[in-house]
Write a structure and sequence with these properties.
globular, mainly alpha, 5 helices
């Protein structure tokens, strides 16, 4: 088995930190739009969880060891954690735009390398969904 898989490690770390961060927002959103944002954030972290599993499984199929500890994730992530406090939807949306742009950058960096067709399919599917999510959050943050 290969040791850790470079750019895929960073993507997996970013996804895991974003998963926790999205839960934080889900727990702590406030305001008149609380219910709709609370529900939307649950959909977001469910999707992120699916991506985490897909990326880790892809790494294992390629003979790589995915990072699997908080210590490893925090050492390589570009996603900034946030404290537990009240958040308004506009601030959450602006943060999600930055974080999804980070994921988009991660994916483009991986795709620039010589990768397998199955990995490219996985990443293209993620990019397509990220583009839709970025459009949604950018429109919501105006």
């Amino acid at each position: 088995m290969k040791q850790l898989g470079g750019s895929m490690n960073k993507l997996l770390a970013d996804l895991n930190v974003l998963y926790v961060k999205t839960h934080n927002y889900h727990y702590n959103v406030v305001g008149l739009d609380f219910k709709s944002v609370h529900v939307q954030l649950e959909e977001e972290y469910d999707q992120i969880h699916m991506w985490i599993d897909q990326v880790a499984e892809d790494m294992k199929k390629e003979g790589e060891y995915p990072p699997a500890s908080l210590k490893e994730y925090l050492a390589i992530t570009s996603i900034e954690e946030v404290e537990s406090k009240d958040y308004r939807s506009i601030d959450i949306y602006k943060s999600m735009v930055l974080d999804y742009e980070t994921l988009e950058k991660d994916i483009h960096e991986i795709k620039a390398k010589d990768i397998s067709a199955s990995r490219e399919d996985l990443l293209n599917g993620m990019l397509e969904m990220l583009n839709t999510k970025l459009w949604f959050f950018k429109a919501s943050a105006k």
